[in-house]
Specification:
This protein is mostly beta strands and 539 residues long. The protein has helices spanning 2-24, 86-94, 130-142, 172-185, 205-209, and strands at residues 28-31, 35-38, 47-51, 56-63, 66-71, 74-79, 83-85, 226-229, 233-237, 246-251, 255-261, 267-271, 277-281, 285-286, 293-312, 321-340, 344-365, 368-388, 396-410, 426-439, 446-462, 471-488, 491-507, 521-538. It has 5 helices and 24 strands.
């Protein structure tokens, strides 16, 4: 009776030990690339933390295509497609040899059976399973010659090169193999004394997973290039073909990381925020080149043509006239804007354009002539909102509100012996509303920009005692066109044209004015053209 009881007890103990061992070894997975650990299953769930490729995680539960894991003392959920079994990864790694056994030969390694014919030295010995090697060592230690002892293949001497030949006669090919073996033996990495694989060592897994000791360090990975989806909806496929398995879907305005372009140029491989990769038609995405935040500064110099035409119901030489002058122009400006959502951008601009006319306007009164110099200053400040059209050209449509301040300053305005034309200094102010259109990538090197602003209602004030009328109504418009050339990264050469137009109507005679034309109604039109070139820097 004792024998069955004893056998039953041993079986139960073995079963319990097996159960405890299985329970103690929780399943592990590791990430295949940078992965987000989510708080709950689903792409829209909050992110608990990010882990890099090759990170080990303990599996706690499974729910559909999601796996609950514990990593770095925290728990969360990852998609099944983001990870692989650690056991399978180790199996693949053990069966993958980094170098051939002999130059120009196979890199295959088997776990049992005869070794490949092209092995040399220790590699010529076939490798048994881990249990077979353990049993073999036990057999050698005990010197047991009984029938139950496993036959073991002799291990090659540590420092002896043994060439396996198919024929007893040495051939030239065998000599070449011996020479190659000697060259391989001179490698810096020493062989294991216990006869294990030549590539196996006691280094940490992170070191074993890396490159060979003599391999150069990997360069730092460049920042990912981002592209924007321009189709209303697009399907990413596992292969660059419509017949490829569906990977994920993207919508218009989504930003994805660019990976590579197919050989035919019709497909691009992209990666979404979850780390999923797939192929999308090239026409469905665009490299708009816009950053989350963009700051720009510019400076220009150029030539200005400034003129005005005055008409009234008065009399005398100052009742109806035209005047004009060339001037040196200088412009500086800057702006900043930020991405707001998928398609909107918000920001502001500040710009200044100044012109200096010297000698200025030539005026002759009888036999006396004089030159009247002047300076203009125009300042514009704007708040703007833009809409990204998500095109390869980076097209943006802007709307903006702002304020304009313009000054026309006459040299020696109060000295009528020098200011014979009695030209007044003036200021023109008022709110502006406008629009702009940007094409930063018209071509690979060229970009374009156009703006238009309307000032209304405007206010024009003149030097006291030199007014053209009692009351005035003013409106103005400003238009610019700019062509830019990409010189270096974030540096461009600019060439621009600016048109400023203003119209003012006066009613009633100005009390105490020294203009002396006796006008009760008058109208003046100002027109300024500015051509300039310069340089711009973006940040």
């Amino acid at each position: 009776m004792r024998k069955p009881i004893l056998l039953t007890s041993l079986a139960c103990g073995l079963l319990a030990a097996t159960s405890l061992t299985g329970a103690a070894r929780a399943e592990e997975v590791r990430t295949t690339h940078t992965t987000k650990v989510m708080k709950r299953p689903g792409e829209q769930s909050p992110v608990v933390l990010r882990v890099s490729a090759g990170h080990q995680m303990e599996v706690l539960a499974e729910e559909g295509r999601w796996i609950k894991v514990r990593v770095e003392g925290r728990t969360g959920w990852v998609a099944r497609t983001q990870v692989e079994s650690s056991a399978e990864a180790r199996e693949v790694q053990r069966n993958t040899r980094r170098r051939p056994f002999v130059d120009g030969r196979s890199m295959r390694r088997g776990w049992s059976g005869d070794a490949p014919d092209d092995r040399i030295g220790a590699d010529a010995v076939s490798e048994d399973s881990a249990d077979d090697r353990s049993a073999g060592r036990d057999a050698r230690d005990s010197d047991d010659d009984g029938d139950d002892a496993r036959p073991m293949k002799k291990k090659a001497p540590a420092k002896k090169i043994k060439v396996r030949r198919d024929d007893e006669a040495a051939s030239d090919e065998a000599d070449d193999e011996v020479a190659s073996a000697k060259k391989a033996k001179s490698h810096k990495r020493p062989a294991r004394d216990d006869g294990d694989d030549a590539d196996a060592d006691d280094r940490p897994r992170a070191a074993r997973d890396g490159d060979d000791d003599d391999a150069p360090a990997e360069p730092a990975k460049p920042e990912k290039k981002m592209v924007t989806v321009v189709a209303d909806e697009a399907q990413a496929h596992a292969t660059p073909s419509k017949r490829g398995r569906a990977a994920f879907r993207v919508n218009k305005g989504d930003r994805v990381a660019f990976v590579e372009t197919s050989d035919d140029g019709k497909w691009v491989q992209v990666e979404n925020d979850d780390g999923d990769s797939g192929w999308i038609r090239a026409r469905d995405v665009a490299d708009d080149g816009h950053k989350a935040r963009e700051i720009s500064l510019d400076a220009r110099v150029g030539f200005a043509s400034i003129g005005e035409s005055f008409q009234s119901n008065g009399t005398g030489s100052l009742a109806n006239y035209k005047m004009g002058s060339a001037a040196f122009a200088l412009g500086v400006g800057g702006g900043a804007d930020w991405r707001w959502g998928q398609s909107l951008r918000v920001g502001g601009e500040l710009g200044y354009v100044g012109a200096k006319a010297t000698p200025g306007v030539r005026y002759k009164d009888g036999t006396t002539a004089t030159d009247i110099g002047f300076t203009t200053h125009d300042v514009d400040v704007r708040a703007k909102v833009g809409y990204d059209l998500h095109r390869a050209s980076g097209a943006l449509v802007w709307g903006h509100l702002g304020y304009h301040y313009g000054a026309f300053t006459v040299d020696n305005v109060g000295d009528l012996t020098k200011n014979l034309a009695k030209v007044p200094s003036e200021t023109l102010t008022g709110p502006t509303i406008g629009a702009a259109f940007d094409l930063p990538k018209l071509t690979d090197k060229l970009g374009a920009r156009a703006t238009a602003d309307l000032l209304y209602p405007g206010t024009r004030t003149q030097t006291k005692g030199l007014e053209d009328g009692a009351a005035s109504k003013t409106m103005a418009a400003f238009m610019t066109a700019t062509l830019s050339y990409a010189w270096k990264d974030e540096w461009t050469f600019d060439a621009g044209y600016r048109l400023a137009w203003a119209s003012t109507n006066w009613a009633g005679a100005a009390t105490g004015s020294q203009r002396g034309n006796g006008a009760t109604t008058a109208q003046r039109t100002d027109l300024t053209h500015v051509l300039s070139v310069g340089i711009a820097k973006s940040f």
